[in-house]
Specification:
The structure holds two protein chains of two kinds. Chain A contains eleven helices and no strands. Chain A is an all-alpha fold. Chain B has a domain of about 60 residues. By secondary structure, chain B is of the alpha/beta class. The two termini of chain B are about 30 Å apart. The chains are: A mainly alpha, B alpha/beta.
């Protein structure tokens, strides 16, 4: 049994979840508390990965990050290799797929925090960043954790965006969901069954975690 | 200490026009008194900077802190007010002593904790220090909230119906505590006339949507402190 896809998937999903959590929670706070022009547009764009077919999302990521795009060239000049068809590409695809789950769930939780508790904290002299980190986010933590867990599940399970951006290179960019597809195509039922079972078990574990922490709807 | 409010603020359909200048020359406690829904709490929110006036100005100790015409708005954090609300609004994920220490503005972590314990002792709540707010009774929570408000060395204390959610015996006990503990200039919002009589040195009278002016309180200000003290 080749464990490479599992290890790669765990690595990609962990890093992608970390990135999606940082940007998702930060974005959720901005959207929940900020009043600025373009807020509605930002929210819509951040939610696109939920409604776009993953292959379409992957296609646009290829357009934006490909070797001929300005971003792609900038990446290559800094890191010495292309972003697409690399593990980094898979991480970017998984991050973008996970982001809206972190963002929307965290935002709902942040909006449910009693604004009077935040007001009380302001009267104690806490600057805004301390109100955010020491009052709002701890009070919203259940929803924030649930969102991050959903983001992890999404990052671990992404097929379409990852295969478009990172390709299907066994031993290099072949993550679990892609390996399942590969095994089925090759008629290796035992391998497909094992990989699928592992993904299903992780998914159920994440849902149990989410249900335990979440009182906020997705 | 003087506090001047000459401002209007809209809250949904409700409009408050507040116009008064109060001083704490008669004594530190000034009551904002009047029927429920007359705009007393809104006035405290204006003074604390939790609300911006739609027109007019607010100043604390002669310093303008809000002016709708120029857009001046000193942030709540920079106004040096301490506030206690009808509900204690303690942070549920922090212990009592941490809640109070959060308000201490200077010193090392150990010094802030020590100051927090001192403040808790002054309101008779030192034994609650390591507990979490959810395990406290309503009266205990308000004691902690008062300690927390005082721990920031406020130049002005704002009490928004601090006793009205409590049962009668607890209310009487806390009224005595407030009477004894309060030395900083304090604005007390209440619709309870017993509270006004027991605590206030002067009174800003409200009717729905507007203030009627400032007058000396009949109870406490008229009597000499020597007669009242045991």
């Amino acid at each position: 049994m080749d464990w490479f896809p599992l290890l790669l998937s765990l690595r990609v999903a962990s890093l992608a979840t970390l990135l999606a959590a940082v940007f998702g929670i930060g974005g959720a706070y901005l959207l929940a508390k900020g009043r600025f022009p373009g807020r509605g547009l930002l929210e819509a764009v951040a939610s696109l990965p939920i409604v776009l077919p993953p292959t379409v999302l992957g296609y646009y990521l290829l357009v934006v990050l490909g070797a001929r795009s300005p971003l792609g060239r900038a990446w290559e000049s800094v890191f010495g290799g292309p972003l697409v068809f690399s593990v980094s590409g898979a991480i970017v695809a998984a991050t973008i797929s996970a982001l809206p789950f972190c963002l929307r769930t965290a935002r709902a939780a942040i909006e449910q925090v009693d604004p009077r508790v935040e007001a009380a904290a302001r009267t104690l002299g806490l600057p805004e960043w301390r109100v955010a980190l020491q009052v709002t986010l701890p009070l919203a933590r259940r929803g924030v954790i649930a969102g991050v867990a959903l983001g992890f599940a999404r990052a671990l399970g992404d097929f379409g965006a990852t295969v478009m951006v990172a390709g299907n290179i066994p031993g290099r960019t072949q993550t679990m969901p892609i390996a399942v597809y590969d095994a089925v195509q090759a008629g290796d039922d035992a391998r497909a069954g094992t990989l699928a079972l592992i993904l299903a078990v992780v998914a159920v574990a994440v849902l149990l975690l989410v249900n335990r922490f979440s009182r906020v709807g997705v | 200490m003087t506090v001047s409010v000459a401002a209007a603020v809209h809250a949904g359909e409700f409009v408050l026009r507040a116009d008064f200048t109060l001083t704490t020359e008669q004594g530190p406690v000034v009551a904002l008194s009047g029927p429920s829904g007359s705009g007393k709490s809104l006035t405290l929110a204006l003074i604390a900077g939790l609300l911006r006036p739609d027109s007019g100005t607010v100043s604390i100790g002669g310093r303008p802190v809000a002016d709708a015409a120029t857009g001046l708005h000193v942030r709540t954090q920079d106004r040096r007010v301490g506030m206690v609300f009808q509900e204690a609004l303690l942070l549920p994920h922090r212990t009592v002593v941490d809640n109070v220490a959060l308000a201490v503005r200077t010193g090392s972590k150990a010094q802030r904790q020590e100051r927090a314990r001192d403040e808790l002792a002054r309101v008779g709540a030192e034994q609650l220090a390591t507990q979490h707010p959810r395990t406290l009774s309503g009266g205990e929570r308000q004691r902690v909230a008062l300690a927390r408000a005082l721990a920031g060395d406020p130049e002005l204390l704002l009490l928004d119906e601090p006793l009205s959610a409590l049962d009668q015996p607890t209310r009487v006990a806390l009224r005595a505590l407030l009477r004894e503990r309060i030395t900083v200039p304090t604005l007390l919002v209440t619709h309870d006339l017993d509270e006004v009589a027991a605590l206030a040195h002067s009174v800003v009278q409200y009717e729905p949507g507007r203030t009627l002016g400032v007058s000396p309180a009949r109870g406490r200000a008229a009597a000499s402190p020597r007669v009242l003290s045991p």
